[in-house]
Amino acid sequence: MADDGALPKGLLPFHQLPVSKPQRNQLLIMISAIMVLGILSILAWITLDLPMWSVVLVIITIGLTSSLFLPSQLAILNTPLAVNLNHPFIDDQPIGVAEVYIGLSDGKWVKPSRDRLKLAKDELLGGYNIVEDNENYTNIGHFSDSKNYKTLLMQVTLINQALSLRDAVNEVQDSIEDARTRESVDSGLLDREWMEEEEIEISGPISKIIGRSE
User: Rounded to whole angstroms, how far apart are CA atoms 165 and 148?
Assistant: First the structure.
């Protein structure tokens, strides 16, 4: 971790990575389509003298469509994840050590260890902490104030994929199966809300890159 918690030089946040370009394009297309529909509805109302209810209906339809599709695209792009130039999210042929950093809710960036990460409810501050998937469930820090567990789970899933690819480049053995074995026999003394075994599907070219690590 950088001394002041800032993102170290040489690392790029996820929304700037080439692998996120399809998500950026999809988001731009969706926003453009929404704007065009809105403008056409207003023009049709003015020129064709359509009843007001028809315009309201179109606006409601646009709003519902936006609420269904935009949040997931924004959630992926806003994943607090950054990698260096040797990570497969940037280059297929790394020439050095791959690095991954994650962002916390206070704006600080930290460098995770070899363990995979999980979400745990923060009963004191609200929202969720992010912890290491080891026998001590080492707390890294407060991850988000959001109560949308599904969205946060999608982000952590993507972060874990980045960690898996990092370890593949650095030839570090993946210990996630060992961690899951430990979890299955855990006494359950702490009531935490963990990530599910099944990974959330992330569509597009990102999923193809993720598949290289499997």
Answer: 26
